[in-house]
Amino acid sequence: MNAIRVKIALSLVVLFGLGAATGVVAARKLAPQPAAAPATLPVEERWSKTRFEEYRSRLNLTPAQVAAIAPHFREFGQEMRQVRDELRGRYVAALRNLNERVSSELTLEQRQEMRELLQERWHRRDNAPRNP
Question: What phi, psi does 120 have (nearest 5°)?
Fold first, then answer.
């Protein structure tokens, strides 16, 4: 008789655990999903927005001042994006130039190895997590 009580109690505990697990899974699957997050802003625009909010709160800007200053921060964010794009182009060109100069000093086998090295590097870069 005592063994039956233990089996019943154990069965109830297992049944409760399965019910709780099912409830958790169902809640996650059936819960309303948040609206799709807006596209992540470029780092320059996020920086600009953060500084703007800091200025707004720390300097106690009036609504008129907020309206007058906001376009300056937007323009700054856009200018920084252009600077980054220009710099990226210059960086890629300089890196390409470096690799061409190094390659000219290598043997045929070393050039092949360098190509593989660069391909591996690009593959790692393409698969690396982004920090926009």
Answer: -60, -40
**Which string of b and e fits 77-96 if b means at least 16 CB within 10 Å?**
beebeeeeeeeeeeeeeeee
Mean pLDDT of 72-85: 90
Domain limits, the chain: 1-32, 41-132
**pTM score, two decimals?**
0.50
Tens digits of residue pLDDT in 9-19: 888 888 878 88
Distance CA 57, CA 59 (A): 6
| Alpha-carbon span 13 to 9, nearest angstrom | 6
Which amino acid type is present at position 30? L
Three-state SS at 27: helix
Q: Determine the distance from the C-alpha atom of residue 40 to the mean position of all C-alpha atoms in its chain, rounded to a whole number.
A: 8
